[in-house]
């Protein structure tokens, strides 16, 4: 009997390892090869957060930018001596270094216990989830099994990330390329309930909106005045995306949109456009609906363009290809 149990365990291990070699995404992907990976990553993220609160928005934004270019494969992590990697593109220069450092520190912690097993892409996905939870958001399971990409080029970024002045049609078109719906667009935009933006990305709404109105009329007048005080002409400091609860992952973002306090045009348009307005109102009034939609959208985002099996590699260092 004991021999039969031993044989069964060996067969189970072979099946699990075979599945991992094929790279199918699964929540329990590392259950045999690195069972404590989620705990290790969360500890690393928590430690980084204790050092700087920028960790949360920086890591979450890094995940979005990674998945929208080449797919969720940690290609955004690659550093190039020639300055021509994905992270070097104009659209990615504003990515905060603390996001990169969070993933690097988590990778080092994982490598110490499970060398050569867990991809940087999976660590980034886990870290993004942990940031949501540590900021007060709802916990959710992350599918794992991604491989790290083998391509990272600055020239492939342009046109693949949403711009701050996008209208709803432009947002829907870009997200649809990744099998993300309009509801996903609205839900993922809710990540702007934390973090900040440089004034240069929205100052046209304050000083040069149109020939008829220098200030965007969709902005609440009091909020516009507040923004002008924070963003003098030709200055480029940063402003919180959520003026109400900037460090908490909640549904205040949607209440802000209803009140005319969406910082970016691509934020406020979600309420201004009649096609998406009902979803914004629903999320503003029902935090549970927002949390559920956000989790669904994050899991869908995490499947975008993933490399599995022999399509990628498990990098030893997240910033460098193995060869």
Explain this structure to me?
The chain has 323 residues and is an all-alpha fold. It has 2 domains: 121 residues, Peroxidase, domain 1 (Orthogonal Bundle), CATH 1.10.520.10; 122 residues, Peroxidase, domain 2. It is 47% helix and 2% strand. It has 13 helices and 2 strands, in the order αααααααβααβαααα. It has a two-stranded antiparallel sheet. The longest helix has 21 residues. It is globular. About 6% of the residues have low confidence. It catalyses: 2 a phenolic donor + H2O2 = 2 a phenolic radical donor + 2 H2O. GO terms for molecular function: heme binding; lactoperoxidase activity; metal ion binding. Belongs to the peroxidase family. Classical plant (class III) peroxidase subfamily. Belongs to the peroxidase family. Ascorbate peroxidase subfamily.
The fraction of residues assigned to DSSP E strands is: under 5%
Query: Total strand count, please?
Result: 2
Helix content: 40-55%
| N-C termini distance | 47 Å
Q: What is the 3D form?
A: globular
| Number of separate structural domains | 2
Order of SSEs: HHHHHHHEHHEHHHH
Structural class per helix/strand content? mainly alpha
Tell me the name of the CATH homologous superfamily of the largest domain.
Answer: Peroxidase, domain 2
Q: Calculate the mean pLDDT score and round it.
A: 93
**Strand adjacency order, main sheet:** 1-2
Name given to the CATH architecture of the largest domain: Orthogonal Bundle
Major sheet size, sense and barrel closure: 2 strands, antiparallel
Rg of Cα set: 21 Å
Subcellular location: Secreted
Disulfide bonds: 34-114, 67-72, 120-318, 199-231
Family: Belongs to the peroxidase family. Classical plant (class III) peroxidase subfamily.
Site (Transition state stabilizer): 61
């Amino acid at each position: 009997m004991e021999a039969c149990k031993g044989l069964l365990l060996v067969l189970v291990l072979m099946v699990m390892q075979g599945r991992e070699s094929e790279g199918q995404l699964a929540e329990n992907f590392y259950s045999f090869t690195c069972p404590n990976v989620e705990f290790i990553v969360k500890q690393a993220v928590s430690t980084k957060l204790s050092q700087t609160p920028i960790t949360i928005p920086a890591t979450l934004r890094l995940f979005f930018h990674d998945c929208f270019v080449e797919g969720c494969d940690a290609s955004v992590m690659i550093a190039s001596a020639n300055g021509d990697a994905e992270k070097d593109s104009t659209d990615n220069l504003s990515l905060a270094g603390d996001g990169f450092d969070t993933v690097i520190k988590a990778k080092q912690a994982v490598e110490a216990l499970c060398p050569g097993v867990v991809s940087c892409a999976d660590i980034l996905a886990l870290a993004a989830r942990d940031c949501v939870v540590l900021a007060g958001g709802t916990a959710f399971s992350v599918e794992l099994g991604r491989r790290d990409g083998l391509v990272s080029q600055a020239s492939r970024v342009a046109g693949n990330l949403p711009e701050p002045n996008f209208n709803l049609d432009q947002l829907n078109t870009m997200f649809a390329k990744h099998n993300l719906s309009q509801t996903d667009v609205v839900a993922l935009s809710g990540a702007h309930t934390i973090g900040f933006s440089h004034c240069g990305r929205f100052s046209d709404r304050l000083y040069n909106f149109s020939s008829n109105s220098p200030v965007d009329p969709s902005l609440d007048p009091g909020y516009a005045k507040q923004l002008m005080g924070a963003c003098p002409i030709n200055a480029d400091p940063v402003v919180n995306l959520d003026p109400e609860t900037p460090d908490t992952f909640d549904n205040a973002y949607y209440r802000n949109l209803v009140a005319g306090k969406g910082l970016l045009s691509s934020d406020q348009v979600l309420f201004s456009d009649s096609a998406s307005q009902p979803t914004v109102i629903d999320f503003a009034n029902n935090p549970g609906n927002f949390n559920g939609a956000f989790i669904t959208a994050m899991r869908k985002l995490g499947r975008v363009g993933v490399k599995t099996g022999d399509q990628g590699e498990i990098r030893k260092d997240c910033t460098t290809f193995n060869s």
